Structures are given as structure tokens and as C-alpha cells.
Amino acid sequence: MLSALPHILGSERQGDADYLDGCRQKRNTVEYDYVGGASKRDAEELIAFGRELQTEVGAWLREKHPRLAPT
Q1: Cα–Cα distance measured from residue 38 to residue 30, given in angstroms and rounded to the nearest whole number
Q2: In the chain, how many domains are there?
Q3: Can you give the residue range of the structural domain that contains 14?
Q4: I want to staple 13 with a disulfide (CB 3.0 to 4.6 A). Which of 5, 27, 53, 56 is the partner?
Q5: What global pTM score does this model have?
């Protein structure tokens, strides 16, 4: 799913896909290897990023596929 971002939304989203993949890798490490690998700031940054991405994907859906866009 993460690697699909630049294919769907454009190559300018490659950095976003890379960021999210890095977060996924960190989560896996923290979940399976050790505690404390993610800070509160990491979580806050990811939440803010997720909200921004949700807004941008919603706008993209409304423009490209309005029937699929959330109401």
C-alpha cells in the first residue's frame, strides 16, 4: 500500500511513501525487538502527517474519482 502512493498520486509523493515505510520499519523494530524506540514526538509527527495525507488524498479523490470520495 505504501509503495503505491507515488504510482497513484504522482512521483512527488515518493518521499511520503519512504517516510511511511520508515515509520513501518520502526514500528516493527519497537514491537518485536525493544521498547522505547519511538518517542512521543515521533508519534505526534506521524499523526500530523497522517491527517495531512488524509486531507490530500480526499482532495485527490474528489477531483479524480468523486463517486469514491468520502462525504
Answers
A1: 7
A2: 1
A3: 2-68
A4: 5
A5: 0.78
Crossing angle (nearest 10°) for helices 40-64 and 14-32: 140
Chain centre distance of CA 52: 9
Cβ-contact 22, 14 below 8 angstroms: no
SS3 (DSSP) at 19: helix
Tens-digit pLDDT profile for the chain (71 aa)? Answer: 788 999 998 999 999 999 999 999 988 888 777 777 788 999 999 999 999 999 999 999 999 999 998 87
Cell of 44: 505526534
Q: How far is CA 37 from the centre of its chain?
A: 19
**Rounded Cα distance, 26 and 43, in Å:** 11
Q: Residue 29 corresponds to which cell in the numbers above? A: 523494530
Cell numbers that stand for 59 in this block: 482532495
